[in-house]
Amino acid sequence: MAFETEIDQISALAADHPQNIALQCFDANYFRSLTENLQKRVLYCMKSGIENPDSEMGCYACQPNDYDDLRPFFAQALAVHHDVSENARHENNWSLASVTGMPENNQLDFAILGLPALSMRVRVGRNLANFPMPAAMRREDRIKLEAQMMLAFAHLAADPSYGGAYYSLTPGHPNQISEDVYRALIDDHIMFKDMSNDRFLNAAGISADWPFGRGCYVSEDRSFIIWVGEEDHLRIMCMERGTVLNRVFDRLKHGLDVVSAIDGLAFAQSQDYGIVTSCPTNLGTAMRASVHLPLPNLTADGTAERVKEIAKPLGLAVRGVGGEHTPIGKDGTVDISPSARFCITEAEIVAALYKGVARLKAEEDLA
Ligand code: ADP
Ligand code: ARG
Fold first, then answer.
1. CA-to-CA distance for 285 and 91, rounded, in angstroms?
2. Which is the closest atom of ligand 2 to the Cα of 22?
3. Rounded to the nearest 5 degrees, what angle is found at the Cα of 273, between the Cα atoms of 236 and 123?
4. Residues in the chain where the model's pLDDT stays below 70
5. What is the percent of the chain with per-residue pLDDT over 90, rounded to a whole number?
6. Ligand 1: which of 110, 188, 189, 292 to mutate, most ligand atoms within 8 Å of CB?
7. Nearest CA to 277 among 341, 226, 339?
8. How many other C-beta atoms lie within 10 A of the C-beta of residue 150?
9. Which of 57, 192, 235 to mutate to test the pocket of ligand 2 (most atoms within 8 A of CB)?
10. N or C terminus: fewer CB in 10 A for the chain?
């Protein structure tokens, strides 16, 4: 029988690592029932979680149709991570009018909560349907995808409401930037970090061929940004300092519509699961809506532990000011975002962020 060694290895790892969802959801009977080709695809998706048994999710999609083709495996993993049923179906909806209990005119204005201007950001992941997912791309695919996106960026640059330019990390690319410019873009929270230091992405193959095919489009006013070649083919985002969350949400939707309408760009989507992403944690909306919120009282001990205690039951994730796996700001600023991505709508995510910030502000005032 093929892959019996792998089956034994996964069973042994699963016994020692109960938090690793992919290892826990591996069913040897289902696996043995698959063709050899599908078995290889399951193992490919689980590579990162096998090499890093301390993973939480422990798997990534490697082809746009992996979630559908390997459904019995992914349905279970999604159910565990997102706390939904195995038959859950995702629906996308950006209309704030569809959310109940919203403030007047659906205005999500932090000033009403007594907050100053905050750095607000909403991002979505997108993958092109005609390429392998980042984990399975060859260097030529990464370069070809970047070249295809250059056409889209020329389109945006020619539009006066976007303008701007594309910055490439690809050696020899006409738009290649220096190390110093790259650094400055990271410091400004515009560009993504060097992925070749991430052991989860390395094991998956997602960070392979670094820095080929990597770069980022930045609009003239630096608020509309598209990453190319990070964990998903594209991460499309809008970021601005202010108090009205609707501004970044609406502008992201507008930019996304402009990009989606560009000839030849078809995004990977699943009938039942919504927007397809590399990591199952992002599936569905692929959206993370965040603010950088100063909470000096709740972080007076120099850590975010107290904030996390309050945030977790509210469905909020707490990150550092440099993003995932980074420390909180010296002034007690933390990155707050709703954890849910799947079986929630885009509109519900921003509404949840607003509500969550209101609760944290109240706790901060009491502390
Ligand atoms: P992602 O949001 O794409 O999952 P990260 O959490 O690693 O990834 O964040 C990516 C970058 O975006 C980091 O530089 C982080 O500081 C920045 N960022 C996230 N949210 C905000 C925000 N509200 N304001 C400013 N920068 C932000
Ligand atoms: N693969 C890692 C794990 O399973 C990270 C998952 C969440 N983070 C992410 N950037 N997708 O623990």
1. 9
2. 4
3. 15
4. none
5. 96
6. 189
7. 341
8. 18
9. 57
10. N
